[in-house]
Amino acid sequence: MSAMPGSILDRAIRREPLDSHDGRSGAVLERVVLDDGTKLVVKTAAPGADLPGAATKDPGRELWLWSSGILGQLPAGVGHAIVDGWQAGAATAVHHRFVGQQVARLCPLERRLTLFSPRVIAAAGSGDPFGALVARGWEYFAEIAPPDVAAEVFAVFDHPELLASQLRENGSTLIHGDLWLVNVALQPRGVVLLDWGLATEAPAALELASFLAGNASSVHATREQIIDDFRELCGDLHHEPTLRLAMLAGLAELGWNKALDIAQNPQIAERERADLAWWVTQARMALNTTGTRTPPRSRPATPEPQAQDHGACVRRERR
Questions:
Q1: 158-172 b/e with 16+ CB inside 10 Å = b?
Q2: Phi and psi dihedrals of 107, rounded to 5?
Q3: Structure pTM?
């Protein structure tokens, strides 16, 4: 698992599992060598995951004792071995905290799935420059994407309740809903998530799909590595069919932007074409996961009477 940026593990030149030990907490231990030859042991653990932790409702007290400075106040002759520590998986920690809870005034999943749909964008007003870009992007998408996948994406816009129902089958939680890198502030001992205006009732996998659609090209890890980290961090919240369905939602969110860059941005067109091909593959895997699907239509027709509420969530260009 990656370290928190700015941590001591940024200097690691070698990491290997430490398997032959007597620990029974269930924590993962690693031997680490830093660039100056310093040898460390790294412990990765989920608070309360072991029997003693669960019995005492451990909130992560070992890390807190160190980060709060309590261990620094130990009397002379008594020491501790901690040299650094951090809490990983900020988003998934939020997902675990609110799983199954009814939180008022969250963006409904159905509306989140149609956030950038042509119908919602049209209802939000044709004079908005961002809306014009989105509309143009969907026109390009209909031309560039394989017809079967393009039709299914537009079918999601026609009947978002069907995909939403399938996404909810394994439960929902509170997701940030706008987890772009510009909304994530890394601090020495944690993460601050900014801009909660799109907080949504949804499965955790939708957070991942949205993050991948908008940020994968800016992260020094492959999409598959990010997905594997998500599976590990989610633990029992993870449900593979839901993850697959969320990828279709991710394409429905930002397929327009990828098509727009392919058509109008030569500097990154090749990268975005490869990225769109990856999303097309994911969408087809999602469609194999679903049961009965909505009969696709090639283009949403007239604006829905309630689409103005959707348009209120359209906030700024994502390029």
A1: bbbebbbebbeebeb
A2: -65, 125
A3: 0.68
